[in-house]
Automatic annotation (TrEMBL):
SUPFAM superfamilies: ABC transporter involved in vitamin B12 uptake, BtuC. It comes from Chryseobacterium herbae. The chain crosses the membrane at residues 7-26, 65-86, 98-117, 129-148, 160-183, 203-223, 253-278, 290-311, 323-342. It is a multi-pass membrane protein. It comes from the Bacteria. Belongs to the binding-protein-dependent transport system permease family. FecCD subfamily. Keywords: Cell membrane, Membrane, Transmembrane, Transmembrane helix, Transport. It is found in: Cell membrane. InterPro entries: ABC_BtuC-like (IPR037294), ABC_transptr_permease_BtuC (IPR000522). This is Iron ABC transporter permease.
Length: 346
């Protein structure tokens, strides 16, 4: 019971911090709300004030609020997906972007953007609307399955093979995406640039609803797996002796992580290193206790990405710095630190 109370205490602190950052993010931007504050405009919108101008309503609700919610949802899912993979592979370097999941999702999303026009008309209307998202999920899932098959033998995962296979998939994805950029039209080129650099500028409430549904489904399945992932740290045979269905656990985590990464890439492009930074920091605080790390990574990922997005909107005002650049800048040194710390075991 004390452990649960401790967890709820940290989650509460995280939630309060997230709310504070969200308030600051809502107040960040170059748009002038005609001499009034963004919070007053938001309150007018919530009350349904007929005197609220269309421009104020659009900026506060459809631009800033939608973007803040998207940052919270995507940051949370990227962090949890990284934590889940690290628990499954028993290694701190196992994240979606480092082992090729993000690259696979980006590749199939790019194919859907450039070549989708040739076969879209043959698909049902509902599928046409979400073809990029479906393609990103399939790319993420195929990459995950390929990495797992290449790097796992006899129930054990070779970390070097896992990282090298991720490098190979990323290289293949980069080369094919480069070719698609070469043959793409101007509008397609802008979309592909968006995927490669990562951005939350295209946030909408429709996308947020889809992200929220994916998040709820994924977390219902994944977050209770903390004890099972703790058992996996002992080894697969020991975990089986403790009553864990190892193969079922692997399949669930692989599919859920592919779903989360694919959906995030479909809506925000390539935002790397969130799934590396958050678990690394939490592991310093709570060791490898996944009953703590999994739920806390959900809220800490939101804090990290929302903070990075707020900086990306304010550093080079009135322009915007792609958020993928910032997360890579933060994640690179941490990646090097992990390599140095674990170089003997690797």
């Amino acid at each position: 019971m004390r452990t649960q109370s401790k967890l709820y205490f940290y989650l509460t602190i995280g939630a309060v911090l997230l709310v504070i950052i969200a308030v600051l993010a809502l107040n960040t931007g170059v748009y002038d709300f005609e001499g009034t504050s963004p919070f007053k405009v938001l309150w007018q919108y919530i009350k349904g004030d007929p005197g609220l101008s269309l421009s104020n309503k659009y900026v506060i609700w459809d631009v800033r609020a939608a973007r803040i919610i998207m940052a919270i949802l995507i940051g949370s899912m990227l962090a949890v997906s990284g934590t889940g993979l690290q628990g499954l592979f028993k290694n701190p370097l196992a994240t979606g972007d480092l082992i090729g999941l993000t690259s696979g999702a980006t590749l199939l999303a790019a194919i859907a953007i450039v070549l989708g026009g040739h076969f879209k008309q043959y698909l049902p209307e509902a599928v046409q609307f979400s073809i990029v998202g479906i393609a990103a999920f399939i790319g993420s899932l195929l990459s995950m399955m390929l990495v797992y098959r290449i790097s796992t033998a006899g129930g054990k995962t070779n970390v070097v093979m896992m990282l090298l296979s991720g490098v190979a998939i990323t290289a293949i994805g980069f080369s094919i995406t480069g070719f698609l950029i070469y043959i793409s039209k101007d509008e397609q080129l802008r979309d592909l640039t968006f995927w490669n650099l990562g951005s939350l500028a295209a946030a909408t409430w429709t996308k947020n609803i889809i992200l929220a549904v994916v998040l709820i489904i994924s977390y219902i399945i994944l977050l209770p797996k903390g004890k099972a992932l703790n058992a996996m740290m002992l080894g697969e045979k020991d975990a089986q002796h403790l009553g864990i269905n190892v193969e079922k656990l692997k399949k669930q985590i692989i599919i859920i992580v592919a779903l989360m990464v694919g959906t995030c890439v479909a809506f925000s492009g390539t935002i790397g290193f969130v799934g590396l930074i958050v678990p690394y920091i939490l592991r310093l605080l709570f060791k490898s206790n996944y009953t703590f790390i999994l739920p806390l990574s959900a809220i800490c990922g939101s804090i990290l990405l929302l903070t990075a997005d707020t900086f990306s909107r304010s550093i080079v005002e009135p322009s915007e710095l792609p958020i993928g650049i910032l997360t890579a800048l933060m994640g690179g040194p941490i990646f090097i630190a992990i390599l140095i710390k674990f170089k003997k075991s690797l």
